[in-house]
Predict the structure.
Amino acid sequence: MGSGDGTQDVGPGIPAATLILFSDHGSGVARHLMIQRAAHMRFAPDALVFPGGRVDEDDVRIAGDENLVDVTLDEQLELAHRVAAIRETLEEVGVIVGCSPAPDACSMQAALKNKTAFSTLLAEAGVRLDLSALVPWAKWHPRFQSHRRFDTRFYIARHDGDQTLSADRDEVGHARWVHARDAIAEAEDGSAKIIFPTLCNLERLAAYPSFDQAVGHLARVSCRPISPRLEADVNGDEWICIPEDSGYPTTRRLAAAMQAP
């Protein structure tokens, strides 16, 4: 049953996390790290997305180990989502955040590829993750599919370091830094496949193009779960809709115009 406000409760999905990095190097208008998912991926093949993936058991273990994380929250699952966002970004593109000084990201990425646990790598490097570097941005709980539904928490973080990328070719077709408005333009001209949640977040990022502006914006909106819903108009056309007070510039789009995941 839907609640009428975009927060339908039809059971939990797969816990997942996404990281949106801001890199502006003093320009005031950030570029964001985005990846084109590999063509063989089951979810959103070829789509342009932000790095991320599901929360795994090791992420949960790290979140509960004060030797590996240096921020404490009441909800351990929240910490696990932040760990997953950091780990997935490292796995997919060889960029690590939330560490100072940063360890050798390329070596860690290669070790993760060889199935070494992230917890082991952090312990061996003597690294503790600063999970406060990740700021909660949004929670998306799409309910359009009966299987492989993800409950995804989005985070934003500043990245002032090296912009070199090392894409994992098993999962990533291409990785690059891009301005939100440029990615939106690619979606509009058909040169990039962008699914509804990603497009909504790109529009929101374009409205708040620096990290400080984005953080200031978050103080004025509630980070509550968003479950897009379908609504039919008088002509029978279906629209994908999200709550109007959720902080997004556009809250409804024709379903037929959107890329399916």
Observations:
- Residues 1-9 have pLDDT under 50 and may be disordered.
- DSSP finds seven helices and eleven strands in the chain.
- The first strand starts at residue 14 and ends at 22.
